[in-house]
Amino acid sequence: AVRERPDADGDRMELICNSCNGHLGHIFRGEKWGFPPPHERHCVNSRSLVFEKKEGGRRLDDPERLAEEAAAVEQGEEGEEGDYVESGYDKWLRHKAEEEQRAEAEAEAARRAAAAAAAH
């Protein structure tokens, strides 16, 4: 079992093993870019984990799995052929670009307001 406690930096929660009180990693909450609800990212040290091989499992770089995923992207998950399925990283990139555009628009509006105020 695992418990959480606030980390010394106050920005994240530390994951602690209930059995040995060892540090397992951290949990980050409120990261809405690319993470579905509950908007959490778990960063667990791999040395804390036990990796067990299971029969029937496939490697992440399995050519068959990669071909199946590529075909799914080309066909779209539920839509027409050629639809694009957005990945979490793509969503994050889009979110960052939208944030930058919004910040630029706000800065431009502030510059215009300042120029208009100075003109009067």
From TrEMBL:
Location of the region described as Disordered in the Swiss-Prot/TrEMBL record: 55-84, 96-120
Family per record: Belongs to the MsrB Met sulfoxide reductase family.
Residue ranges with Acidic residues bias: 75-84
Name of this protein: MsrB domain-containing protein
Biased composition (Basic and acidic residues): 55-68, 96-111
GO biological process, one term: protein repair
InterPro entries tied to this protein: Met_Sox_Rdtase_MsrB (IPR028427), Met_Sox_Rdtase_MsrB_dom (IPR002579), Mss4-like_sf (IPR011057)
Keyword Lyase among UniProt keywords: no
Cofactor(s) of this protein: Zn(2+)
All residue ranges annotated as the MsrB domain in the record: 1-54
Keyword annotations: Metal-binding, Oxidoreductase, Zinc
Molecular function in Gene Ontology: metal ion binding; peptide-methionine (R)-S-oxide reductase activity
